[in-house]
Amino acid sequence: QVQLVESGGGMVQPGGSLRLSCVASGFTFSRSDMTWVRQAPGKGPEWVSTSYANSGRTLVDNSVKGRFTVSRDNSKNTISLQMNSLKPEDTALYYCARGSFPEVRGRRDYWGQGTQVTVSS
Questions:
Q1: Does pLDDT of 58 surpass 90?
Q2: pLDDT band at residue 86 using 50, 70 and 90 as cut-offs
Q3: Residue 112, burial from CB neighbour count under 10 angstroms (0-12, 13-18, 19+)
Q4: What's the alpha-carbon Rg for the chain, to the nearest Å?
C-alpha cells in the first residue's frame, strides 16, 4: 500500500556530495513524518534524519549533523537528503520510511527499497 522509491545513490570520493530523493505514494504525504534510515553491511538500521509534518522541524543524527540536510516538497510527495562532506563511514544502503524512526524501525513494510551510497577513494 505504502510505496516509497528512493533514488540518487552512487559512489563518491570522501568529501563529495550526493542528493537522495524519495517519491512517496499510497498515503497523505504532507501529513506524514518522514525518516531516512541507513544500514551498513553487517550492521543494524541506523536513524539518519526525520522531517516532522506538523511542526516543520527536522532532525539529524549527531553523526551527520552539519553535513546532511533533509527537506521535503509536499507538492511532489518527495523527501530529499542532501549529503555533503561524505565520509567512508557514511557508506550504507539508504532508505526512506513513513513515520518517525521509533515507528518504522520494526516496520520494513513502511520502508522503500533503498538506494546504495558508497564513499570510497
A1: yes
A2: very high
A3: buried
A4: 13
